[in-house]
Amino acid sequence: MSADDSPDAYDSLLERYERATYIGDAAGVLSWDQEVVMPEGGTPARSKQTSALSGARHDILTSDEFEADLNAAEDADLSDEQAAVVREIRREFDRAAKVPKSLVERISEETSNALPIWKEAKAEDDWETFAPQVETLLELKREYANHIDPETDTYEVLFADYEPWLDLSVAEDVLEQLRDALIPLIDELNETDADLATPFDGTYSDDDQFSLAESTLEYLGYPEEHGRLDTAPHPFSSGTQFDARVTTRFDNEDPVGSIGSVIHEFGHATYTLGLPREAYGTPLGQNRGLTVHESQSRLWENHVGRSASFLSSYVDLVNDDLGTDISGRELYEAANQVYPDNLIRVEADELTYHMHIILRFEIERDLLSGDLDVADVPEAWNAKMEEYLGVTPDTDAEGCLQDIHWAHGSFGYFPTYSLGSVLAAQLFDAAESDIDGLDAQLADGEFDALHEWLTEEVHQHGARYTTNELVKRATGEEFSADAFIDYADAKFSDLYDL
Predict the structure, then answer these.
(1) Which one is the CATH code of 168-495: 3.30.565.40, 3.40.30.10, 1.20.140.10, 1.10.1370.30?
(2) How far is CA 92 from CA 23, 88, 95, 98, 289, in A?
(3) 300-344: per-residue pLDDT in tens?
(4) Phi first, then psi: what are they for 436, rounded to 5°?
(5) Distance between CA atoms of 281 and 157, rounded to whole angstroms?
(6) In sequence order, what DSSP letters do the residues of 139-181 get, joined into one string?
(7) pTM of the shown model
(8) What are the structural domain ranges in the chain?
(9) What is the active site of this protein (predicted)?
(10) Annotated binding-site ranges
(11) Residue (of 460, 486, 471, 489) closest to 430 by Cα position
(12) How many CB atoms lie within 10 A of CB 221?
């Protein structure tokens, strides 16, 4: 079939897919609302609303008409961009068509119901309150994975929802490399007598920290007309290239955590806002997956936000909004100290962070395989915290209840955090090579060149390329953990004077 014979099929396919995207994005706004501003009593209605939207989207993606258009479009003489669109839609259709609509709606409803239960359990420090919901979601996700591919490991099927173009074996290899490289480095750092600055010794109000968060976003170039800042129990970003919102949370004794959180979520939002607007609703207007998405947040949080150059000028905002009088060097040392005894993943330093990911990855795999009972999660969690970080949480709120992901049913998500971190190092290496004087620009608060480079190499392509294709185009190299390991060794050896 030639392109002249079937433009109607491709156009019809795209029109149907765009409608499904719009419904999914509407559900995303409802989810944002539930986590940020919805009154506590709104859950019964909200769970029905999100379930209905999930079902409506599934109906479109699995209809006979959609399949017929997809089959016809695949036979057409397509441009490279069109072929990429059809490739992505084919993959989504093949997975969606295997899953009953009733299961899709049940998962959506149960995850919406799980959110307030998780919040209550965390507030009450009581895993038992949340455990039944985890049991239900695990059962539903096993059923979901079995429909898609009964011959493949459940975790592998679920992982592909978040990273469709890198095999789970790649994630396992990266986590193994990080464990082998970082544990001895962390041990070595802890054995030094380095006396790094800890300049924040007061109490900093939520209002002052919110003001700093707003100043930070404005400083970085976050467009006010396309986003907003709020607080949430677990920081996140969501939206489209027209409306990308960020959230943060505050610790009144440690403003460094909120600074990192704001810059992290800004990185996510910048990627979302950088996707091509003219392609909204199509795969070319969607992100490449969570590995790439996380690379953008970790690049801004760590390679920019924790750099000495950035902090040398950014410190003025900190002093103005928090009423402190600290130097850029003091802020750099405070932002980069390695704390193995930090219990909270989103507040972890750049190195021990990956031990948190490894812990969660191992627990999820054991839960899904049936090798770990839900009731035993706190004990398993605490044992792994002691093994990897040498610290045991005193409460479930500081341990197995700290993350929101299981309330979302997001089993298989966590490895993308480490995959994104190693990709961030690769991309930043390439950006430094391509942008003359990037370090000096960051010190001067000038981010346009980096924004433009990331848009050119990553954002503008949407999901046109597979993950590794995108990496090779941007960096000239295959996806690898080498750049991150080299970066971590050099940075922290210098900071701790090894």
Answers:
(1) 1.10.1370.30
(2) 15, 6, 5, 10, 13
(3) 999 999 999 999 999 999 999 999 999 999 999 999 999 989 999
(4) -65, 130
(5) 25
(6) HHHHHHHHHH-TTS-HHHHHHHHH-TTS-HHHHHHHHHHHHHH
(7) 0.96
(8) 7-125, 168-495
(9) 265
(10) 264, 268, 294
(11) 471
(12) 14
Contacts of residue 459, Cβ cutoff 8 Å, sequence gap at least 6: 270, 271, 274, 275
Mean pLDDT of the 18-45 span: 97
Give the span between the Cα atoms of 243 and 14, in whole angstroms.
22
User: How far apart are alpha carbons 250 and 204 in whole angstroms?
Assistant: 9
DSSP 285: G
CB 345 within 8 A of CB 359: no
User: CB 100: neighbour CB atoms within 10 A?
Assistant: 13
Burial of 135 (0-12, 13-18, 19+ CB in 10 A): middle
Q: Could you tell me the two tokens for 449?
A: 């060149």
User: Is residue 247 classed as helix, strand or coil in its secondary structure?
Assistant: strand
265 assigned to active site: yes
**Angle at CA 214, nearest 5°, toward 304 and 276?**
65
Long-range contacts at 326-333 (CB < 8 A, ≥ 24 apart): 326/197, 326/199, 326/200, 329/197, 330/197, 330/199, 331/199, 332/306, 332/307, 332/308, 333/196, 333/197, 333/495
CB atoms under 10 Å from CB of 13, counted, come to 28
Binding site for Zn(2+): residue ranges? 264, 268, 294
Q: What distance in Å separates the CA atoms of residue 246 and residue 258, rounded to the nearest whole number?
A: 12
Question: Of the listed 35, 109, 156, 265, which one is catalytic?
Answer: 265
Which tokens in the block code for residue 50? Answer: 């999100």
